[in-house]
Each structure stands twice: as C-alpha cells, then as structure tokens.
Amino acid sequence: MANSQFEHMHVQAVALPAALAGGCKEHFERHGARFGVSFEVLPPGSSLDAAMEKAEPFFRVELPSGEHLLHRMANNSRKHPLQFGREVVANILGKPELKDWKKCLPKPTAERQGTEEQLEGLVTNDFKAVFAPFDPMQ
Fold this sequence. Notes:
Layout: E1 2-3, E2 8-9, H1 18-21, H2 24-34, E3 40-42, H3 48-51, E4 58-62, E5 68-72, H4 84-92, H5 116-131
Antiparallel strand pairs: 1-2, 3-5, 4-5
Helix pairs in contact: 2-4
C-alpha cells in the first residue's frame, strides 16, 4: 500500500502453500467487494509506472500467477482498511485469527525463553540476518 501524500508505504511478502495459491485472486476480489475495493488486473510483467499515469494512493497485490491486482484508493469513497491484505491472507491460510498482528507475536518455547519484548528482539535479529544480503542500505 502506498500513499502519494507521504513518502511512506507498507510492503508485505507472504509465501503461500502452492495448494492455496490458485484461489488468491478470488479471495482478494470477494473480500474487496465488502469494503468497496475494486481491482484492475494487470498482466504478468506489466509495469506499475505504466498503469499509474499520476502519483496517487494505491494498494497492489502480486498474485502467484504473476498478475497484479491494483486498487486506486481515490476511486473508493470509503477509507481503505489498513489490515486489508493481512485479513485476506489470514483467511486464505484458514487462520483468520492471524489478521490481528498482536496474535502473531513470538511465544516462549523450550529453545527460546524471555519476555515478549526479548523474544521480539530475537525474531527481529533473525530476520535482519536472513535479509542482510538483500538490504539496499548495507
């Protein structure tokens, strides 16, 4: 999701099991209909710059098929739900409780003990280590 009024965006990448990937487009379209979110379908390999003639707020989904769903937020009179993408993916996974990010916080295990804050720090450090080769700021 990006907003042209601010230099700000959210990028979320979620791997889905291949068995669930086929129905993604329908899930996003059906959930979007509940909130007045309609999508343009962009073919695989299409450029977002070519689809967006001017800078404007948008929400985009890259589907496993390579297609992209593009929602122009200015076309929706209702406020775009901030957790929209998370809600759809949680439903696709059959775990609707995961739409609330607070339910995704790390829990203590036999290998990892500590407070919630300490566990979050461990998860953050693990992510940074795995992401480091791709980090453009390094």
